[in-house]
Each structure stands twice: as C-alpha cells, then as structure tokens.
Amino acid sequence: MGLSDRFKSEKKKNSAKKTEKKADKRVEQKSAYPSHVQADLEMLEDIECMVLNKIAYTPVWFEFTEDEQKKLIRNYLNARLSLPENAALILTEDEKDTFVTRILASV
Predict the structure, then answer these.
(1) Distance (Å, rounded) from C-alpha 28 to C-alpha 31?
(2) For the chain, how many structural domains are there in total?
(3) Contacting residues for 104 by C-beta, under 8 A, at least 6 apart
(4) Domain membership flag for residue 3
(5) Second label for 103, Cα 20 to 30 Å away, from 25, 49, 75, 91?
C-alpha cells in the first residue's frame, strides 16, 4: 500500500462521515402554506423576495402605521398575483393574511 492509497482511503472515510452528519442535520421543513400552494411555492417565494426588496428600498417604510404597511403589502401581492405569469398561483384571503404576517415578521 503506497502513500497515495492511504490518503485516498482517508478521504473516503472523511467524506462518509460528512455525509452522515449532513443526513443527521437534515430536517424536514414544513411550509406555512397549504399543499395546493406547494406546487407554486417558488413563485410565491419570488414574490416574497420582491416585497422584501421593495420594503428595503422604501426609506419611509417605518413611518407608515402597521395597518398601512399591511395594506401596502396586500396591494402589492394582489398586483403580482394578477399578472399572467402568476395566474397559476391562487391564494385565499387567509393565505394572503399569512403572507402579509410573514412579511411583517421578517422586516
């Protein structure tokens, strides 16, 4: 057994240990959205990122009351959902409230 063979077997052992650790750390993530939205979750996450970016670049955001902030987020969400590329994503009023709540919690 040569020196290079020893290093190869050591690498295999280390990569096996790393794979086990990753498997242990992997936790099933539960979404706040119902199952019918899961198929379009990527679209919803994109809208979520857009809203957060919009908030970040609105210098007077924190001058609005919480109700005004909710209304602005809901209006933006409704505008994005009305676009043809997001036509497949249909949210109920409760799901929209959940979306608005998640946004406000992350700001």
Answers:
(1) 10
(2) 1
(3) 66, 69, 70, 73
(4) no
(5) 25
Q: Is there a domain that residue 74 lies in?
A: yes
Grouped pLDDT means (10 residues each) for the chain, 107 residues? 60 55 46 58 87 93 94 94 86 91 90
In degrees, to the nearest 5, what angle opens at C-alpha 93 toward C-alphas 59 and 46?
Answer: 50
Q: What count of other Cβ atoms lies within 10 Å of the Cβ of residue 44?
A: 21
pLDDT tens-digit map of 54-84: 999 999 999 999 999 999 999 999 999 998 8
User: pTM score > 0.70 for this model?
Assistant: no
Tokens of 17: 């240990």
Tokens of 73: 């987020």
The backbone region for 6, taken as left when phi is positive above 0, alpha when psi lies in -120 to 50, beta otherwise, is alpha
How many whole angstroms separate alpha carbon 77 and alpha carbon 80? 5
Residue 17 belongs to a domain: no
